[in-house]
Design brief:
Malonyl-Coenzyme A Acyl Carrier Protein, domain 2; 13 helices; alpha/beta; 294 residues; Alpha-Beta Plaits; 10 strands; 2 domains; EC 2.3.1.39
């Protein structure tokens, strides 16, 4: 069985999608449509940058989403299930027939703006912790929060021994310090514009929730494993709730991959910029095939 995976923020780079745009008329049409829907030249930011602009969350998210969906539409693949990492869940919602491209793009654009605003309102950051198990990192976050008096939580359970924490700048720095003291292989701050998947995204969550609840979600034509629960479902109400909840909750990616394999997935295919998810599959699962299209 085939499982398609869509990447999230961090996979962007200046020049992304340019080769496909120049050589594939249908791909070009989809990118041009995104420019029209958004009311600005997203394609120019994707192709020419500058990097500082492309890495702004409000531009990064529509760029990765549009690239991923346009690329998916060019593949002759019939997946049995789908999932997307954080932002990638919106690409998965389109691939599973839950949302139209236009509706999802508008939501992604709003999500990016709200997350950037939340980051500006209450500056936060994120850090990668490598070489420690889930329970140890969860405990470090609790200890750091207690010592600093500000929140830091585990935000991404990416693969065994590879986690990302998120929260107030001082609390994240304290957690990194504790992790190093306890002998983690690596702990480093990430270049992000906010504390994603943490309580600091609460202002974005409220506004986003109000908008998403106004939209009709269709029943998925294949199971979609959501970040919030890691469970596969086709239920539109559950999918709607899960995509709202992921803003302030961790991405359960390790469990997602395990659940997809348990449901019968043997061939994993990443579609979108970068190869991050292929690496996470390799570190998490055995006896599966992995490939990607970017």
């Amino acid at each position: 069985m085939k499982a398609i995976l869509f990447p999230g923020q961090g996979s962007q780079k200046v020049g992304m999608a340019k080769d496909h745009y120049d050589s594939n008329a249908a791909f070009k049409k989809r990118i041009d449509q995104a420019d029209e829907i958004l009311g600005y030249d997203l394609s120019k930011i994707m192709f020419e940058g500058p990097k500082e602009k492309l890495t702004q969350t409000k531009f990064t998210q529509p760029a990765i989403f549009t690239h991923s969906v346009a690329l998916y539409e060019q593949q002759d693949i019939k997946p049995d299930m789908v999932a997307g990492h954080s932002l990638g869940e919106f690409s998965a919602l389109v691939a599973a027939g839950v949302l139209s491209f236009e509706t999802a793009l508008k939501l992604v654009s709003l999500r990016g703006k709200l997350m950037q605003e939340a980051g500006n309102h209450h500056p936060g950051t994120m850090a990668a912790i490598i070489g420690m198990d889930d329970d140890a990192v969860d405990q470090i976050c609790e200890d750091a929060s207690e010592k600093v008096g500000k929140p830091v939580v585990t935000a991404n359970y990416n693969s065994p021994g590879q986690l990302v924490i998120s929260g107030d700048v001082d609390a994240v720095k304290k957690a990194v310090e504790i992790a190093k003291d306890q002998g983690c292989r690596m702990a480093m701050l990430l270049p992000v514009s906010g504390a994603f998947h943490s309580p600091l995204m609460e202002p974005a969550y409220k506004s986003f929730k109000n908008r998403v609840e106004e939209i009709d979600f269709s029943t998925a034509n294949i199971p979609l494993n959501s970040n919030y629960t890691a469970e596969g479902t086709t239920d539109p109400d559950v999918l709607r709730e899960n995509v709202i909840m992921q803003l302030t909750n961790p991405v359960q990616w390790t469990k997602t991959l395990i659940n997809m394999q348990d449901a019968g997935a043997t061939d994993f295919i990443e579609i979108g910029p970068g190869k991050v998810l292929q690496g996470l599959v390799k570190r998490t699962l055995k006896s599966v095939t992995i490939e990607g299209y970017e």
